[in-house]
């Protein structure tokens, strides 16, 4: 029987946004300009958004997506073990986030602490995203119906709330390819697209972060 088609765009665009922010963080750590208060504030603003979005993303996968996939792939020990590995990787990333945050707050910005913390976080997050994209997400089609995938997306949406969505959408589309911008716009209701254009994106840009 043919499976429903599951559109993974929002997941993959989110992964691109995490990679983009990691690059920005690496650049900020390498420039060692955090002793400049304005620069520090910009980096911390960008960091806060990145960290919030990453934690929401991982929490939703652990609580909703992996258990749904585990049900759909229950007969495959290999897939179940991959799902457990992906969850364990989330747990390994948490202390690396905490160390990067502590390093950023450290007034001794000339130390190597931030560069080391950012390098460890980048390594771990990038390899996790690659693992998920190669060995987890390709099996979403097999594990879930389109209806179940939409329930997961709805769960993520209610977790974000309206306030969270106001930050998520401009963040996820920051530097996205025109093709991805079109795809994400196509899944947003027209009134939300208008709110995004007139309010959310300008507010995200005004907030200022390592992006500008
Ligand atoms: Fe993910």
TrEMBL record:
**InterPro entries listed in its UniProt record:** Hemerythrin-like (IPR012312)
The organism's place on the tree of life at top rank: Bacteria
Organism, as annotated: Streptomyces vulcanius
- Protein name according to UniProt: Hemerythrin domain-containing protein
Q: Where is the Hemerythrin-like domain?
A: 9-139
High-level lineage:
Bacteria, Bacillati, Actinomycetota, Actinomycetes, Kitasatosporales
Q: Which CDD domains match?
A: Hr-like (cd12108)
Q: Which Pfam families match?
A: Hemerythrin (PF01814)
């Amino acid at each position: 029987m043919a499976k429903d088609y599951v559109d993974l765009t929002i997941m993959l665009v989110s992964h691109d946004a995490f990679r983009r922010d990691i690059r920005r963080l690496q650049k900020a750590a390498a420039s060692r300009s955090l002793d400049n208060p304005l620069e520090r504030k910009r980096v911390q603003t960008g960091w806060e958004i990145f960290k919030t979005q990453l934690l929401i993303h991982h929490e939703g996968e652990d609580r909703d997506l992996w258990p749904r996939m585990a049900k759909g792939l229950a007969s495959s020990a290999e897939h179940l073990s991959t799902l457990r590995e992906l969850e364990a990787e989330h747990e390994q990333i948490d202390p690396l986030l905490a160390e990067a945050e502590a390093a950023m707050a450290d007034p001794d910005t000339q130390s190597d602490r931030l560069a080391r913390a950012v390098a460890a976080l980048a390594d771990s997050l990038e390899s996790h995203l690659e693992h998920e994209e190669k060995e987890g997400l390709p099996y979403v089609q097999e594990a879930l119906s389109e209806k179940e995938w939409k329930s997961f997306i709805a769960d993520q949406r209610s977790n974000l709330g309206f306030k969270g969505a106001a930050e998520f959408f401009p963040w996820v589309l920051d530097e996205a390819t025109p093709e991805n911008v079109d795809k994400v716009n196509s899944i947003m209701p027209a009134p939300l697209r208008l709110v995004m254009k007139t309010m959310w994106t300008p507010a995200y840009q005004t907030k200022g972060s390592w992006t500008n």
